[in-house]
Amino acid sequence: MPRFALAIPAWAWLAIFFVAPVAMVVWFSFGYKPGIFGTHANDVLSFDRYLEALSPTFFSTFLNTLWIGLAGTALCLLIGLPVAYWMAVKAPPSRRGLLIALVLVPFWTNFLVRTIGWQVILAPEGWLSTLLQDVGLIGGPLDILYTRSAVLIGVVYNYLPLMILPLFVAFDRVGTPVREASKDLGAGRWRTFLRVTLPLARPGVIAGVLLVFIPLMGDYITATVLGGAKGNMVGQLVASQFQAAQNWALGSAMAVMLILVIMVTVAVGALVVWLVMLPIRSRNRLVLGDAPAAATGGDRASEAARESEEVLS
Amino acid sequence: MSSATTEATTGTLPNAAEAKGTVVLDGVTKRYGQATAVDGVSLTVQPGEFISLLGPSGCGKTTTLRMIAGFEVPDAGDIRISGRSVQNIPPYRRDVNTVFQAYALFPHMSVAENVAYGLQQRRTPKAQLREQVVEALDLVQMRRFADRKPAQLSGGQQQRVALARALVNRPAVLLLDEPLGALDRQLREEMQLELKLLQSRVGITFVFVTHDQGEALSMSDRIAIMRDGRIEQLADADTIYARPASAYVAAFVGQQNFFRGRVAEGGAAVDSPHALVRGIRSELGEGQQGQAAVRPEFVEIAADVADGRSPADALDAVNSVRGTVIGVAHLGETMQYLVGLGDDQSLIVRRPTPEAPDLAVGDAVVCSWKAASVLLFASDDAASAGGYVAPPTL
Fold first, then answer.
1. Do residue A286 and residue B110 have CB atoms under 8 angstroms apart?
2. What gap in Å lies between CA B183 and CA B191, rounded to an integer?
3. Residue B264 to residue B259: CA distance in whole angstroms
4. What digits encode the pLDDT tens for the residues B109-162?
5. Residues of chain A positioned with their CB less than 8 A from the CB of B105
6. pTM
7. Which chain B residue is nearest to residue A189, measuring alpha carbons?
8. In chain A, whose CA is at the least distance from the CA of B107?
């Protein structure tokens, strides 16, 4: 039996349930809607559906989705980092199981139910509104439900566990010894975090960001329940094109556009982070190069050669 | 270079009598819940001294080291480094560096970057930093591997990098937490020699934690033998070997044959069921329970001659026992015999290989030793020491 044979079921699964549907969506996106009763036709191929998807009405929804996606991911990261760090490093090890359970339990509740829960909390006549008015923080009733802010609160709440868990695992794997070594060598808490803990937890940060950002961009339940007309997301558009408007061609074009937006955003984000890190990395970098055969340290010529090498690197 | 560290420290003024590199523990105690890990340890380490904390696991040696490094805070007592109390001073502002048990190298940095880390924290100018890193790597002969990642190095090489990473900072005190524990035997013995040479070259105070008595004996100026959070004996290797303060120390350092019984002859002997073991007169009271200890290397062994004129009579031997060889083992430089004396009592005898008699299992033998080789102790729980629990099997 060839070695790849064991992988056949997985490949078959991916081909049938992932590649094929995506290929169909891409194919539909080049077609059009033939009359009131048809959903799609592909006898004439064009990019017209993409132009339609990018028309001003829909384009603002794309921008809105991207804004919520970026802000939501950033907020999850901002909240998740200290929580995960605390759970992995500071909390007593005997409490860990409990803490992980506390992060996970809301996650086991039905997605729709816990989102609707926020409708109750954020309502103008809800208890949060009353409380904030009583305290005097706001003048009138809370006016946040059915806005972009409500969607943002909802997605941060819904996706936070997906950020905390990979971060927790990553921080946990960094371990105490290297952090102690860093402090032993004269680095305070922040420097230890920035130069040892965070770089070593990088895979967890990347996993968390992708796990939150990608599904969040395609989310449509949160936006439907909390967003109303002002907090639209692309997921809602796609759903309405497939269901209400019965225009599969346009819906497909929107779905493909969304995939492209996600891919480009991830690529641009990676590039930006890389560029920002460039000067920091080069500052901490130390390349000595190959030692001369007789490593006496007195060889001036090779010393100079190493100097220039460092300038280049 | 260390001025930044010391200037930043607040608290008591430096004690003029304690020079740079002095470590003073003054009644240091550390508790974890009900358990007392370190129980009122007092110890003064001289500048440039190589001191070992030796003991079985759980004796408090690592906790003591971690308190000097600043990773644990004592519940009572005071620690002074270079004459200055380090209470409330975090690890990153203490003039000490640690070589960790599992090295704890930064896996995402190259060897050179690992070594440079401490200097970077003090904002050492880049040219000077390069010079010092190269110097430190040369010191441990790791210059060739400067640009490798720790994962690409063997255990011994990682150990050298960990050493260079600590030494490059020129700390007043270097703390070593079983740094050779993860190496195989041959490499470990090599590194012991190198470490000792290195220490005399750099002249830094070394506080070395180990459970390996051979390591402690071969490297240290003084050894503190710890037991249940206390120092049982603090002395140089010769003293600890020749005049152990207690049966525990005697059993932990090297091997001992113990004979238990009633103290006889005015405190100069122990009357065990198998032999009256005579030693030098001690303070033990006649009639109390005591134990006599003799090291395997101090026992002579010869084949028993049937006519009763055994070779033992020719020796100045006040102690001799008859027995049967029940095991012979070749240990390289020495031969080891296990001699059964009847019941469960057995005797370990070790002779240098060139002069070892040719004996086989089942041979009748006479074993003898001088009174001066015998140590007499009050009866206590020496058996709980790591060194001697049950007669070893060959």
1. yes
2. 9
3. 13
4. 999 999 999 999 999 999 999 999 999 999 888 999 999 999 999 988 999 999
5. 178, 181
6. 0.82
7. B92
8. A200
